[in-house]
Amino acid sequence: MNNILLGVGINDKQYPTKINAKITKQYNTWYSMLERCYCQKYQKTKPTYVGCTVSDNFKSYSYFYEWCNKQIGFGRDGWHLDKDIIHKNNKVYSEYSCSFVPSEINCFFCDCRSSRGEWPKGVYFDKERSLFRVQCMGYGKEQSLGRFNNYEEAHQVYKQFKEKLCKELANKWRGKIDERVYDAMMVWTV
């Protein structure tokens, strides 16, 4: 008897979901992926997942379980399932778009849209000085890249810094991450 989760996920019970009463990493990753895509309550708190889906293959727990066990980085502490580094702005979790990446890479691609407001990535308006401020996480801390009279100039500074940082990060993790992730990071643009 199959279990259907969140209306789409099929657990055919070919592989365990728990070992010694502890949920397996495969099951936890699979369920979390389904939850991001198909749970309205979850999407209310994380609206960036609205419109995301899971491929037919990934809806099968046994397929996902086997796929996970073959992936670089799966099971390592601090590594996360990612769907949109290999294919920028991707909204479908599948074996063609997903990989496991360390949190340092995963966080690099986080978008702080809600805190920056209407301005482009990396640009914030400094009301006290009436200037556009550029900030970016890099080298383990928040980097202040300066203040500028217009947001276009500020965004260019951010873009150059962020793209350079992406290549440095890719090279740091080369050989330890999926080659598709490395390749995507080397050509990534803001």
Helix content: 25-40%
Radius of gyration, in angstroms, nearest whole number: 19 Å
Query: What proportion strand?
Result: 15-25%
Order of helices and strands: EEEEHHEHEEEHHEEEHH
Structural class determined from secondary elements: alpha+beta
Lateral strand order in the biggest sheet: 9-10-11
| Beginning-to-end CA distance, first to last residue | 47 Å
Question: What would you say this structure looks like, in words?
Answer:
By secondary structure, the chain is an alpha+beta fold. It is 37% helix and 22% strand. The protein contains seven helices and eleven strands. Strands 9-10-11 form a three-stranded antiparallel beta sheet, covered by helices on one side. β10 (131-138) and β11 form a beta hairpin. α6 runs antiparallel to α7. The longest helix has 23 residues, at 151-173. The radius of gyration is 19 Å and the shape is elongated. The protein starts with a strand and ends with a helix.
Could you list some keywords that capture this structure?
3-stranded antiparallel β-sheet; 190 residues; alpha+beta; two-stranded antiparallel ribbon; 37% helix; 11 strands; 22% strand; single chain; 7 helices; elongated
